[in-house]
Specification:
Oxidized Rhodanese, domain 1; 2 domains; five-stranded parallel beta sheet; two-stranded antiparallel ribbon; 7 strands; 29% helix; elongated
């Protein structure tokens, strides 16, 4: 029974697409169609736009798609020929979660910058971090203390590496270190109470 569902739903989607292309008929705009395959029944709900929706509301905050592979830390790191590196592309300095925890426990002066999105920060965070999303990091680099060592982190280490590269290219003079494995490694190796997502 479940095997035929993609075909049924796909046919309905194709039918809606044709109506939109032709500009005719009554497409399912602002309507939700529910299909119960077991009882072979259709129900239709009329829905209103949520004015506070971050995508389609009156004041949208989400205006572009995210890079899914980057967001989920799925993109493999590529090796770089050290001899061809420019000053901005110099070897990325990294620190493990356990080493960072040890240095914080010793009282070393380290600031931690989180370059994830606010909704990720609400799910899980490392104590005493400052949230500056990747898209804002260059514009807000004046908020980062140049006198302290700065550990930058994200979920898995990809976005934080991009943030460090962007800051260096923008002329940030302070020491920047990437948290290897991001907050995921912190949750695994340091504090299992920090949720994984």
């Amino acid at each position: 029974m479940l095997g035929v569902l993609p075909g049924i739903v796909g046919a309905i989607q194709a039918n809606e697409t044709i109506k939109l292309i032709l500009g005719d008929g009554e497409p399912l705009i602002n309507r939700l169609l529910l299909f119960d395959a077991w009882k072979m029944r259709f129900r239709e709900l009329k829905i209103k736009k949520d004015p506070t929706c971050p995508v389609c509301g009156e004041n949208p905050t989400v205006k572009e798609l995210i890079d899914y592979e980057e967001f989920c830390s799925l993109r493999p790191q590529t090796s770089v020929d050290q001899s061809s590196q420019t000053p901005q592309e110099e070897q990325l300095q990294e620190i493990t979660a356990t080493d960072l925890k040890g240095r914080l426990d010793r009282g070393d002066e380290i600031q931690i910058i989180d370059v994830r999105e606010p909704f990720e920060y609400e799910i899980a965070r490392i104590p005493n971090t400052k949230l500056i999303p990747l898209g804002q990091v260059v514009d807000r680099m004046s908020e980062i203390n140049t006198e302290s060592e700065t550990v930058v982190h994200c979920k898995g280490g990809v976005r934080s590496a991009k943030a460090i590269d962007a800051l260096k290219r923008a002329g940030f003079p302070g020491k920047l270190i990437n948290l290897k494995g991001g907050i995921t490694s912190w949750s695994t190796d340091v504090d299992t109470n920090v949720p994984k997502y």
